[in-house]
Amino acid sequence: MRKIFLIICLFFLQQLHAKENPVFDFIKVWNFLKYYHPDLASGKQNADSLFLNHIESKILNINQSISILTKGLTNNVNSTKKGNAPSDVIDDNQDFDWFEKNSTITSKNKKILHNIHRNRLAG
After folding, report:
1. Prediction pTM value
2. Which of 25, 41, 112, 119 fits as disulfide partner to 62, beta carbons 3.0 to 4.6 Å?
3. Which residues make Cβ contacts (< 8 Å) with residue 45, sequence separation at least 6?
4. Do residues 86 and 53 make contact, with C-beta atoms less than 8 angstroms apart?
């Protein structure tokens, strides 16, 4: 019983440490961009190559991750396609608090992420 308790405690400690890790922040930003930025979601640019090219760079904080990953992407994200009807979109399980309520992310970077989400590839 003690071994199981110890394993569970170690698992939770690892999870707490992972959430404070800059690599964890880098992966969150990359994953968001992969599914929401029109250049990556449409396949114009390879999201996996973007990840592999930058994962080993010395990332100090989440703002640098956002800057590095959005550097080669279209910054003027405006969707000209007609989006899905609101009734066709499942958004009950979408939680963007990781960047909306994160006080360490600058307002400029929050604006970039909001703009990407608002004008995401629909289709």
Report:
1. 0.71
2. 25
3. 39, 72, 73
4. no
